[in-house]
Design a protein that fits this description.
Shape: globular
Low-confidence stretches: none
Number of helices: 21
Strand content: under 5%
Helix content: over 70%
Largest sheet: 2 strands, antiparallel
CATH topology of the largest domain: Serine Threonine Protein Phosphatase 5, Tetratricopeptide repeat
CATH class of the largest domain: Mainly Alpha
Structural class: mainly alpha
Radius of gyration: 22 Å
Order of helices and strands: HHHHHHHHHHHHHHEEHHHHHHH
Distance between the termini: 17 Å
Number of domains: 4
Length: 389
């Protein structure tokens, strides 16, 4: 990417946040003269400097970069190291357990990166964090083992976000196996439900929608039914089951699951439960996704819902961008070409790495470019950015 384009993006992000060059330079621990040169395009920042500027702006570096850039390369370059960290996850190598407080803080950091779709940062820390979490579980006492197991499951799920979004389906399945292996030591039925929720990714990827639906319905038979955590766990399973049923073309079953999810969502506030967003807003997003999956008149109903309501800023970036990606697909199906492009641009603004790696977003961007015959410069640029051309 040209340094001038990167500089312009940094300057725009800074002005949006009402920061002066002096304010941003101070927060990024660089000189004002260096920042001025970067924004003017006469100097390209190093990776470390770009990370510092992005941190000061409260952004992922991927939002400042464009095209198939360093951010993309970092994500895909991290996959072999994540795979290597799993080579002996179930074998006690006799390694010392890292300090628990540090490990807990790093696991929480990884969770926040996952929810914000900051995959390049997640890819950078995941390998070492996975190895440390495995060592902690093997070194734990019987008393501490459940907590160590829950932590390893959380770390594996965060790493899975990198693998799944990057299209490394086999690695994603291995990380889900690590989650399920850790869950047996956790003595936590909520974690069992979470593992079933995440495992559904493998059914989506394989287009084994009927099998995935059966797996989630089996999980619902044993999922906790009381307490806020139990309600959220069941609600999340119903949401995902609804979409799987929709992809399988089973409208009646899908309607039953989304109805159950809506009932549960109305009983608890929107929040992150066991690492999963659930509540009234998440259910509405899944209603739109379900309508797009079912097609036909269901798409019109989904678009009607989307006209009346938009997800709030409080939701995780991945879930919000997913809403606009699904919305764009429905709009494109209904011939609303300009609206679909606007939705994709909104998705990109919320979570660029998630949008770029999403197969539907890439496919729809290519379709839009063909429909408009590449006569719109911004659309051509978007299609090139997402890899549709």
């Amino acid at each position: 990417m040209m340094a001038s384009h990167l500089g312009q993006r940094i300057a725009t992000a800074r002005r949006t946040r009402r920061l002066s060059q002096e304010d941003l330079a101070r927060a990024a621990f660089i000189s004002t003269s260096m920042l001025r040169k970067i924004e003017q395009g006469s100097r390209a920042p190093s990776d470390d400097t770009l990370e510092a500027i992005a941190d000061a702006l409260g952004m992922d570096p991927g939002r400042l970069l464009d095209g198939h850039d360093r951010s993309d390369r970092r994500i895909h370059a991290g996959l072999p190291a994540i795979s290597a960290a799993l080579a002996a996850y179930d074998i006690d190598l006799g390694l010392p357990a890292p300090p628990w407080e540090r490990l807990r803080a790093q696991a929480d950091e990884a969770l926040q990166y996952r929810l914000a779709s900051q995959y390049s940062r997640l890819a950078a820390i995941a390998p070492a964090l996975l190895a440390d979490a495995c060592a902690a579980l093997h070194a734990s006492s019987a008393t501490d083992r459940p907590a160590a197991a829950r932590l390893l499951a959380s770390v594996a799920r965060s790493a899975d976000a990198v693998a799944y979004k990057a299209g490394a389906r086999d690695l994603s399945a291995r990380l889900i196996d690590v989650m399920r292996w850790a869950a047996q030591w956790a003595e936590d039925p909520l974690l069992d439900a979470t593992c079933s929720y995440v495992r559904a990714e493998t059914y989506f990827a394989a287009r084994a929608h009927a099998a995935g639906l059966r797996a989630l319905e089996t999980a619902l038979e044993t999922a906790p039914a009381t307490g806020t955590g139990g309600l959220a766990a069941r609600g999340a399973l119903h949401m995902r089951a609804a979409v799987l049923a929709g992809r399988a073309g089973d409208a009646d079953t899908a309607a039953g699951h989304i109805r159950e999810a809506r009932t549960l969502g109305d009983r608890i506030p929107e929040a992150i439960y066991q690492g999963t967003a659930f509540g009234p807003e998440s259910v509405r997003i899944h209603q739109v996704s379900l309508g797009v999956s079912l097609g036909g008149d269901h798409i019109a109903a989904a678009l009607d819902l989307a006209r009346e309501w938009k997800p709030s800023q409080d939701l995780p970036a991945e879930r919000r961008s997913g809403f606009y990606i699904e919305l764009a697909r429905g709009q494109l199906h209904e011939g609303l070409v300009d609206d679909a492009f606007e939705s994709l641009k909104v998705a990109r603004g919320i979570a660029p790495q998630h949008t770029r790696e999403h197969p539907w977003a890439r496919e729809d961007a290519g379709t839009l470019r063909r429909l408009k015959r590449a006569d719109v410069e911004s659309l051509t640029g978007f299609a090139e950015w997402i890899g549709a051309v």
